[in-house]
Write a structure and sequence with these properties.
The protein has 235 residues and is an alpha+beta fold. The protein is 26% helix and 25% strand. A six-stranded mixed β-sheet has the order 4-6-7-8-9-10, sandwiched between helices. The chain has a four-stranded antiparallel β-sheet with strand order 1-3-2-5. Strand 8 and strand 9 (211-220) form a beta hairpin. Residues 1-32 are annotated as: Disordered.
């Protein structure tokens, strides 16, 4: 779906230094067009996997810029993961590595195993689809409206406009706090459609080629409103 023909208006937004990145300083963009050009340049100049973010981006700017970036041919070929969360007003960009992207083939394999083992028995269950890095922006008002998310992995039924299960994978220099905001956006802003959110946080061990991390599984409570952490695992 193409974004509406929205006139760009001046909006105040500040650029935060990306955690763990030695990047040249940038002047603060003041319009959606300036933010678009800045993010596009940084994506196209990237030399490999990475993560960067911009803070205090107003809602009228965040989703507009994200959706315009997805329609840009150069950005489509670069294939970054874009996110704008109205909860923390952070616009983030992830240029994925094989490690970061490993959740998608794992989820696809598990769904196939579930079919084979008979976990899905109804015709409706058979329609479930697994995807990744597709954009979702139909979050309901009031507070989630304006967000734009490209989850690393999702499971969705074609009759719904938001997924049932979401996996968000955090890059090395992406904060755990931001992952928690992503979880809140999906479970609160995505109610009642999103029932499970799995968070994966990767950390690169110093002076080695090894990675470590943790996994958290969150699901909606029995009342439909409560959120409870089901399990935490370190790896």
């Amino acid at each position: 779906m193409s974004p509406p023909k929205t006139r760009s208006t001046e909006s105040s937004c500040s650029v935060a230094p990306s955690l763990g990145n030695n990047l040249e300083p940038h002047s603060s963009p003041t319009t959606p067009q300036q933010l678009f050009q800045l993010i596009k340049r940084r994506i196209l100049e990237a030399k490999g996997p990475g993560y960067f973010e911009y803070q205090q981006i107003p809602p009228e700017t965040g989703q507009l810029v994200a959706r315009r970036l997805t329609e840009d041919g150069d950005i489509e070929r670069a294939n970054p993961t874009l996110s704008y969360n109205t909860l923390d007003r952070v616009f983030s960009v992830t240029i994925s590595s094989a490690t970061h992207g490993s959740a998608c083939p794992w989820a696809s394999s598990e769904v196939i195993h579930s079919y084979v083992q008979g976990c899905f028995t109804t015709e409706k269950d058979m329609d479930l689809m697994v995807g990744g890095n597709d954009g979702f922006y139909n979050f309901p008002a009031p507070w989630a409206a304006g967000s734009y998310k490209e989850p690393d992995v999702y499971i969705i039924h074609p009759a719904t406009f938001l997924p049932t299960v979401v996996i968000e994978s955090g890059y090395y220099n992406e904060s755990s706090t931001k992952l928690q905001y992503d979880k809140d956006l999906w479970l609160l802003g995505g109610a009642p459609h999103v029932n499970v959110v799995i968070l994966i946080k990767w950390d690169k061990e110093a002076d080695s080629n090894r990675v470590s991390g943790w996994i958290e599984l969150h699901r909606r409570g029995d009342s439909g409103a409560a959120i409870r952490k089901v399990s935490v695992a370190n790896c």
